[in-house]
Amino acid sequence: MTGWYRYMSHRYLGLESTHPQALWESTHAFPIPPAQRRSERFMQTFWRQQKQRRSRFGARWKNFLKMILSGMIAGHCDLDILLDPFFLHYPRPHEDRVWYPGLGHSNDPADLLEALDMADQEDPWRNQFRNAYWDHPGSQIPRLQDKFKPAPSS
C-alpha cells in the first residue's frame, strides 16, 4: 500500500471510529412521527441528536471526498475508486432507507444481532457489501473485476 492509500485508509478509519452511530444511521432509519416527538421528550432529544450526528458526519464525509478528488487529480487513483464499496454513497435524509428487519422472513428476529444478520442478508448494500463483495454492482463490470478485492475462491 502506497503512502497516499495508507494515509487515506487511516483518515477513513478515524472517520469511522469517530462517527459509528451516524454511519449506521445513514443506512438504517428509525422514523419518529412528529406526534411522538412532541409527546415524548426522549424521542424529541433522540431525533435532535440524530440530526446533529448526521450533520457533523456529513461535513466530515464531504471533506474526505475532497481529499479523494485531490488524489484523483494527483494521479494516485482513478475514477473507478468511487465504485469500490468502501466509497458507497450514503443516502441523503430524504432518500428512502427505512429498515424493517424480518419483513422477508417468516419469523421475527429474537434479538438485535439476529435482526442485523437478516438485514445484511436481504440488503447487502446496508453494510457496504462487506459480506458479499462479489454481489456489488461495480464488481459486475468486466474491467473492474478483482480490481479492488479478489473474488472468493470456490
From TrEMBL:
This is Glycosyl transferase CAP10 domain-containing protein. It comes from Peronospora matthiolae.
